[in-house]
Amino acid sequence: MIENSEEVARVLSANNPGEATTEPVLCDALAKAVSNPGRMVRAGLVMAAAKSHGLEAATAEQLACALEYWHQASLILDDLPCMDDAELRRGLPCLHRTYGESTAILTALSLINRAYALVQRAFLLESAAVREQACELVDSALGAAGILCGQAWDLRFSRGLRASREVGRIAWRKTGALLGLAITLPLLPSSAWPRERRTLHALSIYWALAYQAMDDLLDVAAPTGAIGKTPGRDAALSRPNLTIALGAPLTRQRIARLLGLAELQVKQLRERDAKWTYLADWHERLLMSRYRMFIAA
Amino acid sequence: MIENSEEVARVLSANNPGEATTEPVLCDALAKAVSNPGRMVRAGLVMAAAKSHGLEAATAEQLACALEYWHQASLILDDLPCMDDAELRRGLPCLHRTYGESTAILTALSLINRAYALVQRAFLLESAAVREQACELVDSALGAAGILCGQAWDLRFSRGLRASREVGRIAWRKTGALLGLAITLPLLPSSAWPRERRTLHALSIYWALAYQAMDDLLDVAAPTGAIGKTPGRDAALSRPNLTIALGAPLTRQRIARLLGLAELQVKQLRERDAKWTYLADWHERLLMSRYRMFIAA
Fold first, then answer.
1. Do B116 and B139 have their domain in common?
2. Is A76 found in the same domain as A62?
3. Do the strands A92-93 and A88-89 form a parallel or antiparallel pair, or are they unpaired?
4. Are residues A156 and A246 in the same domain?
5. Residues B115 and B141 placed together within one structural domain of the fold
6. How far does the CA of residue A20 sit from the closest CA of chain B (Å)?
7. Same domain, A112 and A237
8. One domain for residues B151 and B296
9. Is residue B170 domain-shared with residue B239, that is, in the same domain?
10. Of A80, A102, A125, which marks where a domain is finished?
11. Peptide bond into B194 cis (omega under 30)
């Protein structure tokens, strides 16, 4: 997925919070978790932004690792029996199915704890203003107003009035929170921030909604094995799903519109400065390739 | 428990991560959690240290709140069915028994997320050296080498050879992690740190071990209702418990010895400087009063 995926995989392994003194089952679970990092979309976005905006390699690696750890922790917790009760994740049995629920929770918390430390280390020598912005962005993206709120709505969702609007709101909080951090955190030390703030924010919303809408369509329509997780979970669990709310044809229309809006933001950014070109590459990799392969047919 | 307990309770409520836009059940659970803060031992230690060492009130409040949030999150998660499957906590039904497991997990994560932000805000204007130390202390105390490792051992524990030694190791990681942070974090900006580091570290170990040993004895021996949580859980779940490993008489001996060792550290600190007197007060409040009331009989 990303050019430097081996480099990122090495960083994910090097920052593994499991130590020699860590309880062995937790240690095993952590090793398993960090060795199956998925497509590393968030890390890839950070590394690309760092390259274009002149962020130091060590800083970029710490941020990339933190985002992947947070993301992985959110997947581990989402898959628990009391949440989505999933079987498969990234093509393997979910962590709690191998190690038990308690170890899965402790693994997620270990990754979360290390991720906060990594972001602080990444910005250790930055100004108080940059550190404060980083702190606020992380607090709001990951907290009770961000991804955790999205997950709470997800669990409480029932099909009904305004369902497609609710679906969008939940998707933005659940998927957009970490995508937004991946786009913005590496820019904090550069002068690009906060000048382009609004456009970047809009881009992260359209990306998140389009990505989630494609996920929803695939959850309903993909054959088992085509995606690395259990399909049909949304219907089984009455979870927010745009395709269940609107049907496949309207979902396809919605996806096409969101992709167009995302493209427009990227175009505006590129017209202002060529250094935003990496976002066009990521628009292609993250969304368009998936769109053409699974959706546009 | 502490002179300024109303002030701390106000701070715990003011920093509640639940917002107007937060999903209502999660919002309710957060309000419930922050309104039943227990004895606020960790907050009290921070406030006392701040007063003696000249830490600003706003900084002290942020640190105090962070420690109580982390502590409360650890209790919420420890009580889950896949961990200790507890019924009562702080005299009320455990959070997951009122709101369900998923909301309990999201509540704990909301408190954890806000706590990291609070510590960063508390030290925002401190030197990079102080911020780095804070980051390392938190990372190691709360991560896979600290409290999470302690919980993993706790779950994996089976009675047998070296049981009492294992019990101590687990108690130090589980109980000592946050007590250690409560003692040390507020000292980081002052010149007292790292001069007294070794003595303070020893004190936090003896306190944690003595406190946990008293807890173990009460878990085995206290009548229902005398403590704010379900008694007899350790035996029922084969969890590490010093009294189960050694019997009540040897547990009492051990407690007396640990209290003596803790007192020795406090005495050494006070002889060096009268500003450490608050630790003598806390030795009395945290341990000796409980010891006399429940154990020494």
1. no
2. yes
3. antiparallel
4. yes
5. no
6. 9
7. no
8. yes
9. yes
10. A125
11. yes
Statement to judge: residues B200 and B241 lie in one domain = yes
Q: Is the pLDDT confidence value at A28 over 50?
A: yes
> Residue B54 sits in a domain of what CATH number?
1.10.600.10
Which of B125, B150, B178 terminates a domain? The answer is B125
Which of A25, A83, A124 has the CB atom closest to B132's CB atom? A124
pLDDT tens, residue by residue, A242-287:
998 889 999 999 999 999 999 999 999 999 999 999 999 999 998 9
Chain B residues lying within 8 Å of A62, measured CB to CB:
none
| Predicted model pTM | 0.93
Long-range pairs of B27-35 with CB within 8 A, sequence gap ≥ 24? B27/A144, B28/B99, B29/B95, B29/B98, B29/B99, B29/B103, B29/B104, B29/B106, B29/B107, B30/A144, B30/B107, B30/B110, B30/B111, B32/B95, B32/B98, B32/B99, B33/B72, B33/B76, B33/B95, B33/B107, B33/B111, B34/B72, B34/B111
Provide the domain limits for residue B80.
1-125
Number of domains in chain B: 2
ipTM over 0.85: yes
For the stretch A64-120, pLDDT in tens is 999 999 999 999 999 999 998 989 998 899 999 999 999 999 999 999 999 999 999
Max Cα-Cα span within chain A: 54
Residue in B closest to A106 by C-alpha: B148
Which chain B residues contact residue A152 at CB under 8 A? 22-23, 25-26, 102-103, 106
The per-residue pLDDT for range B102-120, each reduced to its tens digit, is 999 999 999 999 999 999 9
Q: How many CB atoms lie within 10 A of CB A14?
A: 10
